[in-house]
Amino acid sequence: MEQKAPEQFSDAYEFIYRRILYPLFEGVVRRRHTLRYLHEYERNQWRSHDELQALQWSKIVRLLQFCYEQVPYYRQRWTAAGIHWQDIKTPADFAALPLLTKDDIRRNYEQLIAEPFKGRTLRKATGGSTGQPLTFEYSKESNERRMAVMMRGYAWAGARPGQRTVFVWSGDIGEVPLAKRIKISLHHRVLRRRMLNCFYLKASNLDEYLKAIDAYRPVALVGYTSSLHQLALRLLESPRPHWRPQTIVTGAEALLEYQRQDIERAFGCRVFNTYGCREFMLIAAECPEHDGLHVNMDHLAVELIDTGGRLASSGQVVITDLHNYGMPFVRYTNGDLATSTSAGCACGRHLPRLQSLDGRLLDLIRTQDGRMVSGVFFPHLLKEIPGIERFQVIQKDLETINIKIVKGAGFQPGKMPFLEGEIRKVLGDRVNVRYDFVSDIPLTPSGKQRVTISELDGFAG
Q: What is the predicted pLDDT for the residue at 67?
């Protein structure tokens, strides 16, 4: 197969898209400021360490004042703790503020929405990769900035807007109205994206996914780590001429070193890892040096704390969104574990780095008929069921899946047939799915809840 893309056309379309089509769509049609924020973030990445710290601190102070004055939850909680926003004068003072948990958000949902933003926020649900689905609100500016900072991070991998890109990613849950499907399809066509639903990936259709990639000939390939790894293994087991993208971006799951090596050998290009979650979108990403993931500190404040709540170089991830004034997340714990590094990066960017992500492994689920379902499928699905506080999926053999569920006050039993139907679409009818409603789900010794567990020998993700 011819390996070289029609570069001239690709570059021309990318130029037209970035300079004409995207500005018209975002700025004129949608009246969004995404490109302005992108230019801001592109300049920020080359600022000195001191400049970045000063920029971040100014954003923190402005956010704290707003939270104290406009967000009932923070005003009440900080006042009860004897804290005024003006008392926060140093990063150490900031690190002493109470943490925000998923349970805090569920119990105080309305009090966390800023008074000036009532009725003007966007809403999203997390996939609950730590076993606790969550609904939250965010502002229009936050949404635009999230898109901008994601575009910056993907550009480090050479994956820029307007390039031909294949996403091996999650699809919509349930029946999607025709009008919405048409709108989504047109949107992806303009963006030059081909979407392949990774939740339907199985041994018998790996070649179909690979043929779809070959046919589209993408510059960039973006996908769930485990799904791209399964496609890579197929290429390594059955070598054949195939399309080679210029770059690959992995996300949603931890990228292990052997997976990186397999994917790079199979597709013949470098892999760039990313770290994010739905609450914030892109948190950190690899630059071309592949030496840890740069944290978007001009957009977020990311801390690591030990079991005693003290700042540490390795521990629980704590995140503050510096631009979501609709429902501010101040020192939010997302359930992930990571290790940072203080060493400089040869790329010249002074954005700090996470050296490793230590606690975000979701096991792969397998079936008798050869399906290989990313563990991310269940968080993606269960977020659609109101009132599920926590869950855990356990596979003991090829015939049985056990789903433990902790019900909350808003649980709707009538949603169970929908849940069963969506699981059957992906896992098929030969799997016995058992639902256990429990009062608690124990954590691992490290304090992490494993959401998807495969106990099949040699099949853990």
A: 98
